[in-house]
Amino acid sequence: QVQLMESGGGSVPPGGSLRLTCVASKRNFNPKAMAWYRQAPGKERELVASISSDYSIYVEDSVKGRFTISRDNAKNTVYLQMNSLKPEDTAVYYCQANGILVFSIEDQRYLELWGQGTLVTVSS
Q1: Distance from C-alpha of 4 to C-alpha of 96, rounded to nearest angstrom
Q2: How far apart are CA 89 and CA 39, in angstroms?
C-alpha cells in the first residue's frame, strides 16, 4: 500500500509563511504528476499547483507569485512553499500524485493517490 504523507500545516498570521511537504511512502512508486489541492470550508476542492516529472509547473492565479511548488524525485517528495499568506488561503491542503507502482518489469500498476490533508489556518 502506497501512501502520501503530508506535513507542515499550521496556524500563522497574515503575511506569514509555511512549507508543506508530501512524501510517497514506497520507493518503488514512481510519481509522474504531483500536485497540491486545497479545500476551504463550504467550498469545493481546487487545484493550487502542480508539477510534472519533467518539472513543468502550473500555479493557480490567486497564489501566483506567493506559492512555489517543487519536487525532489530522488526522495519521492513534493513541496509547497507558501509566502505572504492571506486569510483566504485558509483551507485543508491535500497532496495528490499520479504514478506507476513497479513490482517487476511485467507487473506495473498505475495509481492515483491522495494524502490525508493538512490544515493551514491564516488568522490574526
Answers
A1: 8
A2: 9
Alpha-carbon gap, residue 78 to 53, rounded angstroms:
11
SS3 61: helix
At 124, list the grid cell.
490574526
pLDDT digits (tens, 9 = 90+) for 5-51: 999 999 999 999 999 999 999 889 999 999 999 999 999 999 999 99
Express the helix, strand and coil content of the chain in percent, nearest 5 each: 5, 55, 35
- β-pairing, 10-12 with 118-122? parallel
Task: Please name every residue paired with 92 in a beta bridge, in sequence order, or none if there are none.
Answer: 39, 119
**Dihedral of alpha carbons 92, 90, 11, 17, sign:** positive
Is the CB of residue 29 less than 8 Å from the CB of residue 101?
A: yes
Residue-by-residue DSSP string for 33-68: EEEEEEE-TTS--EEEEEE-TT--EEE-GGGTTTEE
CA distance 33 to 37: 13
